[in-house]
Amino acid sequence: xxxxxxxxxxxxxxxxxxxxxxxxxxxxxxxxxxxxxxxxxxxxxxxxxxxxxxxxxxxxxxxxxxxxxxxxxxxxxxxxxxxxxxxxxxxxxxxxxxxxxxxxxxxxxxxxxxxxxxxxxxxxxxxxxxxxxxxxxxxxxxxxxxxxxxxxxxxxxxxxxxxxxxxxxxxxxxxxxxxxxxxxxxxxxxxxxxxxxxxxxxxxxxxxxxxxxxxxxxxxxxxxxxxxxxxxxxxxxxxxxxxxxxxxxx
Length: 250
What we know:
Blueprint: E1 2-7, H1 10-19, E2 24-27, H2 40-50, H3 67-78, E3 82-88, H4 92-104, E4 111-116, H5 131-137, E5 142-143, H6 146-160, E6 166-169, E7 175-178, H7 184-189, E8 196-197, H8 198-208, H9 217-229, E9 233-236, E10 246-249
Parallel strand pairs: 1-2, 1-3, 3-4
Antiparallel strand pairs: 4-5, 6-7, 8-10, 9-10
């Protein structure tokens, strides 16, 4: 029986390719705690806009963010009886990924299993674990029944229909949809009365958040851009890249 492993982040995919050299690893390459979930091109436009002011090398075009899923499903549909392992942690991003996998792979009759990894040093992320440890976690893979797969797919559809673009998970694996500005007060608290490099403010915010739902620097950069546009913080320098301008509180 052929074995496939499904993950959401590139770093996890690289670790799994080392851990399971004879298996096929598919990577969605996306963070599903953020952005629209129903249309790949709309999602691509969302990520292009999120990168404004983050890097001069950020996306210039809006890609179809669901292209990896199309390739994945096509490959799986042509494969003989297989085992598909969906890797996830307790983070909001990877909990949405699990539900999205059940939605996207509906209609395939391969065995679908979940492999949940625990938090490491308080960080909820599959990518936090090295290949050797990931290899051990496969012993705890749990088969998903058709009923559970359908339930997760329905939950994904309900999440995707919500207007809020940020998703976080609590300790009971319940997902909550929140507005993008929910953490703006935390970001403002990281801005002092003195000029600071924007990248330092973003780093400070990343160090203060809930490690179960830790957002990356692109998210915090986008919120800094929003606060600057709204006149809530002062800016010195051209906002073309996170390391090229400074901010302070007003």
